Amino acid sequence: MDGVVTVRPSKQSINSEGSEYEEEAQEIGMLPAFIMSINFIIGAGFFSMPYVFYHGGIIWGAMMLILVTITLVITSNWTLETCSRAQALDTVIRESDIPDLTFQDVSIIGRRNNTFGSVNARTRLIKPKYEITATRKFEFTELMEIFFGKAGRIITAGLIIIYLLVTLTAYSTIFASTWSLVIPYNTSIHSFGLCNLSDYGGLLPGGSCLNSYRFSVLIFACIVIPVSALDVNTMKPFQIALSFIMQFTIGVGIIHCIYGLATGNVADGEHNQAHPTRFFSFNFDSFVNMVPIVVYSQVLHEGIPMIAQPARDKTKLHKLFAGALSFACTVYLTFSILAALRFREDVAATASLNWNVTRQPGNPIVIRMISYLIMLIPSIVVCSAYPLCAITLVTNLFLLITGRDLSTDPRYRNKLKIFGCAFSVIPISAAMFISNLKTLSKYAGLIAFVLIMFIPIMLQVQSRRKCRRVFGKVDQWIEESIAASLSLREEDRTQLLDKYAKLRDVMTMTPYYSSWWSRTWVVAVVTVVSTLLFILAAISAFTITAES
After folding, report:
1. Distance from C-alpha of 247 to C-alpha of 241, rounded to nearest angstrom
2. Residue 255: other Cβ atoms inside 10 A
3. Nearest residue to 403 via CA among 185, 149, 187
4. How many CB atoms within 10 Å of residue 228?
5. Do the Cβ atoms of 38 and 320 come closer than 8 Å?
6. Does the pLDDT at position 546 exceed 70?
7. Which of 42, 127, 284, 311 has an alpha carbon 20 to 30 Å from 15's alpha carbon atom?
């Protein structure tokens, strides 16, 4: 598809007083950028991993996670390449000093049957400057618009909105299921009751547990909806602090699982013999259910432009994101395998709820305190993540409707807050009717397939094709266009020649950026692997029940 777009990027934005201000991200080191990447990856998908590992087969779960991680490392590099190619096109517009030059003008270079005659380019005569700058950020939706036109922007923004709605619903269920298990609201009232893990086997708990669950959802709403009206910068310190606390909690959970395995304290329920480890066992339905959840647990790509823009050393971005994905994979493998072996048949669909057994009276006080920590901290962390996702949802909604990113425009700041609070109600309302995190993760994973696998593949192919066409043929196009301009009036010809001269000056750039992962056969292999995995994810979402 060779759709062109008439978006004109600008260096500046307009504030509420009508004056212009320069946008430039505050520079951050590679370690903070790495931490931001880890925070972006480890989210709601993490909580379903031990369950699907145990029921799908631990060894098969580990192999699936490693395969998905390798695939996503490659597609994350393609996302960086696409951003740099968009920047190369953007540079032509920004530095040419041609007031009316747009992406559409750049896109017609090298196309046959253009205004100035046919083109028969055989070599790449001019090599552009591919880079990622601190003053220009290309979000997924904008990249799709640049390389696929308006339809690309609409489809991508719509998918992100749906994905965020499902994710926000998952956050609500994590909070509500935890609190309804731990907090005894008032068991003397008949309509309320303390829940058990067995109550969360289906889409919703039953009996008095359902009332406790829905009451917990209301408490969650009272916390996150007002917080959604705060400025993002105000929430950053809490985000950073809670992120470290969450990583600490995961570490404590890993140590506790090792301790339980070392002391023989394996959850055996009411059986007289230990449950099987299911290390090598294989169940097709459970294995298929694993696929979308594993993908959902590794979502990073939509955050790559946001993290890459302020990163100080942009020559190491590909190593940064590959390292973040590999680190998350290691954490997932360690936690999921140990939790699956520790809890076995009693493993809960929401990972933090596994410690509901060890928090009960009769266990050592230290073990009980650790269990409460592991159960409650994730429910607090999602309270801070929810408002940021709600703001992102509203930003993409405005982008879908208006075609503009209004999040950086102070004139729309209050409107975004109001709509953020309003749209926060939708996933909370959905959580009233579904409590099964595994089911939500399956559908979120299906959408994640498109966002972090297929869209990067499409952008890699189309952006490379367009940039090779544009920068490989521009010199010959200018020569032929100058010759064709001889028939124009003198004043029109002078203006046109001046425009071509500036365009030629801008496009004397550094060598063409590429990587080993950019080879055509790699793109083909990743496409085949992604398609096969997507088919399995679709089977899981539409034909296999969540209980499998």
Report:
1. 10
2. 12
3. 149
4. 24
5. no
6. no
7. 311
The confidence score (pLDDT) of residue 218 equals 92
Question: Which tokens in the block code for residue 535?
Answer: 């088919």
Is 78 in contact with 457 (CB distance < 8 Å)?
yes
Element (H, E) at 12: strand 12-14
- Of residues 129, 337, 193, the one with CA closest to residue 253: 337
Residue 510 tokens, joined: 């550094």
Structure tokens at 174: 């994590």
Q: Which helix (H) or strand (E) holds 14?
A: strand 12-14
Mean per-residue pLDDT, 503-524:
59
Reported pTM = 0.77
What is the 8-class DSSP label of residue 289? Answer: H
Q: Which two tokens stand for residue 219?
A: 């408490």
| pLDDT in the model for residue 119 | 31
| Distance of alpha carbon 245 from alpha carbon 234, whole angstroms | 18
Sign of the alpha-carbon torsion through 400, 406, 412, 418: positive
Q: What type of residue is 248?
A: F
Nearest to 512 by CA among 107, 138, 125, 91: 125
**Scanning the structure block, which residue is given the tokens 């209004």?**
406
- Helix, strand, coil proportions of the chain in percent (round to 5)? 70, 0, 30
The contacts of residue 377 (CB under 8 Å, 6+ apart) are: 245, 246, 249, 352
Q: Let me know if 389 is exposed, middle or buried by CB neighbors in 10 A (0-12, 13-18, 19+).
A: buried
| Rounded Cα gap, residues 213 and 200, in angstroms | 10
- Angle at Cα 34 formed by Cα 38 and Cα 143, nearest 5°? 85
Q: What is the CB-side half-sphere exposure of residue 422 using CA atoms within 13 A?
A: 8
Q: At what angle do helices 365-402 and 413-431 cross, to 10 degrees?
A: 120
* 483 contact partners, CB below 8 Å, separation of at least 6: none
Output the pLDDT for position 227.
81
Please give the C-alpha separations between residue 390 and each of 96, 228, 232, 239, 426, in angstroms, as whole numbers.
Answer: 38, 7, 11, 15, 10
Q: In 155-186, which positions are buried (b, 16+ CB within 10 angstroms) versus exposed (e)?
A: bbbebbbebbbbbbbbbbbbbbbbbbbbeebe
Q: Which residues contact 276 (CB under 8 A, 6 or more apart)?
A: 344
Please state, in angstroms and as integers, the Cα–Cα distance from residue 329 to each residue in 94, 320, 332, 385, following that order.
Answer: 40, 14, 5, 21
Runs of H (alpha helix) within 263-347 = 284-296, 304-308, 317-343
Q: Which of 209, 174, 220 is nearest to 43 (CA)?
A: 174
User: Which segment, 234-243, 276-285, 367-376, 477-486, is predicted with the most confidence on average?
Assistant: 367-376
Residue 61 CA to residue 65 CA, distance in Å, equals: 6
pLDDT of residue 467: 76
Question: What mean pLDDT, rounded, does the chain reach?
Answer: 75
Is residue 103 within 8 Å of 7, Cβ to Cβ? yes
Interatomic CA distance for residues 210 and 191, integer angstroms: 9
